[in-house]
Amino acid sequence: MTEDIVNIDQLTSGMQEPVKRFVLRVQELAGSNCLAITSFGAIATPAFDPRKQLAKSVVILNNIDLPMLRELAKDGVKLGKAKIAAPLIMTPVYIEGSLDTFPLEFLEIQQCHLCLAGPDHFSDLSFDASHIRLQCERELKTILIAMRQGLLVGLGVRKCLGPWSRILLNASCVPCVACCGCMIRRTILPQFKWWGILNMKPSGRCQQFVGRFKICGNMAGKTL
Question: Where are the domains of the chain?
Answer without folding.
Answer: 8-117, 129-221
